[in-house]
Queue: 2 jobs
Job 1
Amino acid sequence: MADAAAASAGDDGHGTDGGTGTESESADRPLLGTVVGLSLLATALRLLDLGARTAHWDEGRHGYAVLRYGATGVWEYRPILHGPLLAHANELLFYVLGASDAASRLLPALLGGLLPLAAWLFRERLRRSEVVALAALFAVTPALLYYSRFARSDLLVATFAFVTVGLLVRLLDTRDPGYLYAASVSFALAVTSKENALVYLACWLGAGALLVDHRLFWKRWSLVGDGDRRLAAPAWFRDRVDEAVLLFAVLNPVVVALLPGVGRVVAIVLLLVALRCALWVVPDEGEAFPVIVGVGVAALSVLVFVGDAVLATYAVAWLVAGAYVLGVLLRGSDAGRTLSLWRGPVFLSGVVFTVLVAGLYLPRGQGLDAVAGDPLLLADLVEQALFGSWTAASELWFGAVQDQSILPYTTFFLRTLLAGAAVTCVFGVAGFLLDRYRDGGSRDLVAFCGYWGLVSVLVYPIVMYGTGPWHAVHVAVPLAVPAAVALSQVYRWGRDAVTDRRAVPAALAVLVLTGAAGTAVGAAVTTAYLGPTSPDNGLVQTGQPGTDLDPVLAQVSAATDGHDDGPEVLYYGASFAMDDESAADRLPVTDEYGWRNDSYRQLARNEAWYDRLPLPWYFEQQGLETESVRNATALRAALASPPPVIVTRAVHRDTVARELGGGYEQYELQLTVNGTDTVVFVNASTGRESKR
């Protein structure tokens, strides 16, 4: 990523284009101090009263699963619970700190607080004021603050993905292989945080394609070139590749994807033609011919005798032949020498990535324990960790194609961005345009992050599972870079106006900056602290309980203290009843998923367990045993030995009260934002006796 030279120099300073220069240590020190200060501020904001908000359904489900993991020592990847990183981290945190809402959110909070430090990675690509603005945006953008205080993996994957980009930029700036190893670790953590790390790869590819398009066409660079025009391709490549080779290389995968069955015969024929055309690349290398023909004949033979396996064979054949041709292409060139030099670090970073991903996805429990007695089992577990996890994730998250109109999802997503990242989005667009059309041309980093954010806006309404406001995080992070450029530009305009004693431009700059700061900070305070469960909060998802559960949970704890005569909690009604309570010993309580009422959800007789959330998370913390009944007859039988706590929907309040006959306090709850009126009956006498 070679950036065009940053704008004019001055006391604000800027990074160099290709990463060959550095700012003086004396200039870096105050900049680093400012970034660290913003990171400390961000951390404090995220840790402040971290456990105050009642757990969202997702938080409750994940916390409950981690408690069961800690109790049984058994864990394996379940796509509905997302990647393993948060589960393993929280299992350790619960062991050290005890299970609580605050402990479950500690890792996202700390990573969100450290995210402003990532701005330091771009110090040679951005002005000093742009680095500061980027760190400030990461600290106070409402969506980033809210979901840093939330036990979900979205903030984790966004942070690690952005850090990966930053480390790769530093790799280009310094040519230090240490950054490559660090990037492999960072992206491995992204992949183990949540499955949409693969969506990040897609967005990066889309952004990269747009960036290449910009360099080739908007900047009017040419593949073949003439005269003194700057060329997109180096001379050694242009001299050995013609348009025919490139055309066949591009068309072959397309043909395979679009033409199943008989079309694969065409694909293999095209493979042979393409490989024959590759001889044009190496006109004086006659020994290439037998290799290329042999690969093509092998692929054609597999087509005839194996059939369905031809697609995989085709891919392997093309990779083998392509690798051979690439090796000839690069022989004796600067690029070839560079690849040879970096062959070891690239291989080692790949090993580091694979080991980390496999290690975190590796199932825990009896299978892993058995490896000590039979090391050969490790291969099966690694296969399950890598390929089994991918199969499970693709079946749930990538196998279910949305059949709803995309418009409602897009509208919802844009509303969420307005509520959670308005300043970042507005200034992100402005910064992208300002940098694109400035003197000297746009910087690749700013353009790439702008395209990355744009592609994310287009992609997430398509791939989002339900209406999750947390997806705003994945747009706010990349758009923060061009937004920082715009804020820095306004600051410099204002500074120059003050220097020139131009009152009106200076006042306008102050107005814009204070307005942006006030809007971002005001929205952050409102969404994260003043109304974190309010239906009017654009970042609140439906599964967020509208009631503070702490008072009733305190009464439940008092009422169940010392109870040893059967289950402490009884759920009543079809909304909560399960046919097999033991199914909740490990999540998910259901094993099948499918479409129902235009939504992709669990399909099994025990699915009512999910309607209890987040209560199971809190009851499990207290070590309470639960059971459930479906109808009044079963309720009457269960109340022969009344449990201290009964949970039911409000529509069954009178039925339960009549059967109990008194002695229980009633507490009204909303287990979602609204529409889930629930009543908890707590044995008042038991509670009072416990208190005494």
Job 2
Amino acid sequence: MTTTTTSQPALPNGIVRFEDYTAKKKLTPQSTEMGQNQFLTLFTTQLKNQNPLDPMKNEAFVAQLAQFSQLEATTAMKNSLDSMVSSMKSDRMLAGSSLIGRKVAVPDGPATLLSGQPVTGSVDLPTGADGVKFEVYNDKGQLVRSQILGAQTTGTMNLSWDGLDDNGQAMADGNYRFKVTASSNGVTSTPTVNTLSTVRSVSSAGTADDAWLLGVDGGKTISLSDVKRIGY
């Protein structure tokens, strides 16, 4: 059996076969939204092809122009808002980067002992306390120092550790943890202790509210909104 192959004749430049055109069009994403250029093209085409015996009335003409003007205004507003949001993000990142290397008060952050220098912190006591116990733990969770500080008034209570254990021995440099136990009217609580940590990095959380995250000592990451104080 003999098979005959028929070749398609070549077409002039700029001319494509209908089959090729429809196949390519199916692969091309089609926008379902009318943009500014499409609206203007449709509007001018409508004017060119209107019935001269029954032209578009002034009210309809004004309404069409109003739609076009509204589209332009909406597009311009969106571009302006996008630019503003981008600028605000840059400003916030710049503001956050200024914290790198600075000390901030971090909730439940590490208490970093360096060269035997005193380590400070603070705790909020909204209703005061009849008695307060202040404890220091090392990075293995072992208790190294315990102090009874007695009754405290309402407000912020400042804490300070001299770097010594209960036997008066100097502790090695490193990260420790402060714990406060407060008693009031027979009720015991462990309020959050804020300690000073150095900001090491700033990054975006990538969330809808565009929160910023701070990397601090001890590998801890906190939200910028959680910072209680910058320095002491």
